[in-house]
Every structure is written in C-alpha cells, then in structure tokens.
Design a protein that fits this description.
215 residues, seven-stranded mixed β-sheet, 5 helices
Length: 215
Amino acid sequence: MLIQTHQLAVPPGYDGPILLVHGGAWNIPDKALSDHRDGLRQALRRGRSLLEDGAPAVKVAREVVATMEAHGAFDAGCGAVLTDQGTVELDAGLMDGTTNTFGAVAGLTRFPHPIRIADTVRTEGHGKVRLMVGAGAEAFAKHHRHAPVDPATLIHPREQSRFEALREAARYHTSDSFRAPRGTVGCVVRDGQGHLAAATSTGGTPYRPAGRVGD
C-alpha cells in the first residue's frame, strides 16, 4: 500500500491501493506545523485502516476528509475560518470515479461533517441534485438523518481570535497574503480494486463576505 503526505512517488508497475491527502495550500506557521502533521497522520491512519478492511475508494475518501474536518487544525469542519459576520460556512464535494457520480454542498452552518452530507447528496439525490446550498442543503441533511449542532460549537477559539484581529485590520482583503488559511483539505484514493475517488472540504477564506462559496 502506498501512503504519501507530501509527494507522489509511485513505483513503476505498482497497482495496489494509493491514499493521498492534503491539508490546505498556505504558508503554515511553524507553530502550527505539529498540529497539521498530527491531523494528517490521523487521516492517513483512518484511510489505511479502511483500505486494509477492503472499503471502497469513495468511503475511504469521505472518511479521511471527515477525520480532518473533526481535527481542528485545518480550514474545514470545526477548524474552519470565519466570515465577516463571525460565522462558519462550510463547503464540501465528493466524486466516485467508479460510477462518475458526485455530490456537493455549500454554505452549511450547523453540520460538522459537510463531506458526509455531500456524499448523501451523491447517493440520495437520485440525479435530481448534485450541488445543494444553504437552507435547502441543511433541510436535506436533516431529512437524511444528519444531526445539526449549535453553530457556536463549530467556532474554533483560534479562528475567533483571527476574526477579531481581521475585523480591526484596515482594508483587509481575502487575497492579500498567504499568512492565513486559504485552502481545502482533500483526499484522493485508489482502492484495492483499482477504483478512484476524490473528496474535498473547506471553510473558505478568512473574513470573506457571508454567503460567498469558498470552493
């Protein structure tokens, strides 16, 4: 099994499972590196365990990303950055390369694992929907037994502090620098049957206008 965290180096002729993860594209401060590495290791362990149990690629991709959503180090799930209203709005998407089906959600405010809801859109949307947003996406999630939480529980203290600092900053723009989180977490998987899947989740960019889709 090939597991990589920072570079792709597939041996010639290798045709077994592959698991790739990423934790965002920005200039991560040195003091945050250990948390990010811990989150990636947890995600890799989860994915490896699922692959060793014979899980399909789409399930592995979903649960690897869900692990990162739960960790808190990343701009996704419970570690997401805040909008200019001090709120969390979460986006996620997932595609199954075997069936070419996909599902995505955007603007979720009350669900810690948007990647799982995106997968439910993929499987339960019956081709009528592929991307759902805001209140409609949250109603769909509740209908399919995803449990909402108090939005306040999704606000990480680190991001509350970042929000307060940016609120005081003059003329801040979301594209000004790479000093703040500005990327997704993601996973690409090839399972033991050779099937592919990809998943991604994000909290968007810091202090963006509420309602702006992050990815």
